[in-house]
Design goal:
It is a single chain. By secondary structure, this protein is mainly beta. It has a single domain, classed as YVTN repeat-like/Quinoprotein amine dehydrogenase (Methylamine Dehydrogenase, Chain H, 7 Propeller). It has strands at residues 5-8, 15-19, 26-31, 37-42, 47-51, 56-60, 69-72, 79-85, 91-100, 105-110, 113-115. The strands form 3 sheets. Strands 7, 8, 9, 10 and 11 form a 5-stranded antiparallel beta sheet that branches. A 4-stranded antiparallel beta sheet has the order 3-4-5-6, with no helix packed on it. The chain has a two-stranded antiparallel sheet with strand order 1-2. It is globular, with a radius of gyration of 15 Å.
Length: 116
Amino acid sequence: MEEKIVVWDTTTGQKVGNLGGDAYDTILLAINPAGTLLATRDLQGRAMVWDYEKGKVLLRVPGSEHVDTVTFTPDGTRLITGAFDYRNDRIGVGPVKVWDYRSGKVLKTFPANGVK
């Protein structure tokens, strides 16, 4: 059995899309305000934005970016990713990045703010 995420319309009970392949180890997801896109985070800390009706990945956050959480901006036009800072003996919050998921570019970075 192929593992995947299936998206259902809760009003009609109809299946409206699915994410296969790269979605098999997803542990966190967020839906944009329009209900048309999903952002996922997997066990390895990779993030993606999906057009779930087409089953198509619109953005793969680059492999060097470890992500702990994902969400969309309130207007749904940007992806926000956040990560813990695990450097040396410090653990803290950051960095938080705002992405244009259409171009794959980081628009704003809020740097890590580690604490001892």
